[in-house]
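Shipment paperwork, digital attachment
Item: protein structure file
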Amino acid sequence: MLKKNIVKIILDVAMALTFVLLMNPRVFNGLPFHEVTGLVIGVAVLVHVALNYKWVVHTVKKMFDRSLSGKTRFSFLLNVLLLLSMTGIIVTGILISKVVFPHLLSGENHALREIHDVFANLTLVLVGVHIALHWQWIMGMFRKMFKTKEGSWRKGALVASALVLALFFASMQWLAVNVKPNEEAFKPKFEQKVAQASKAFPPPEKFREGEFTRKERHGSSHPLLVIFGHFTFWAVVIVPVYYMEKRMRHKRRVRV
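Attachment content:
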């Protein structure tokens, strides 16, 4: 059971990191990474559901049983919403694809792109609530991974984790410096033609790029900044939800 839970926590952390990187489509080489990794995380979600299959079946069977706690019911509903929102992201992502499925829809579809963004932002919030509800389990798993039953630290696990983190941050920095996104993929065809024309007939000095900087919709594309920004957002969601759930749990114990 412990080994299975360790696999689950590693998969969940990897999914969280990957998901926040996908929130900015300009990370690494842009759309190729965004679209391919989006399909990979879709498979990871199915693996996540499969690892929790017994809990899902048990909860469905007891959904109308009064012995089932309100937290479990809410958690099940939250997971259903998460599955639906992730499905919405994947389906709309496939429909607006320019790299993996470039011929499904011709031209720009701004409505689908907006829906895709809405699903992504909704999922970001739902994942934050999901983490808050499972915070005790997450902390418990990390304690089991890094501490023995006697309470002493597992030095080998700590060193290995530190090395993995160092390798991860170093690789993120290297990729951010050496792998640049393809900005042309984000420009509509009309803008591309205008850009090509401007190269052939450059505008006056005061109208050249740099004079009027345009704020990027998705912010910085540096992977570490993307991770930090979205994990900060999750912290804002997790802290109040965790303490609300903790207070409700305390009230239930007092009543009993």
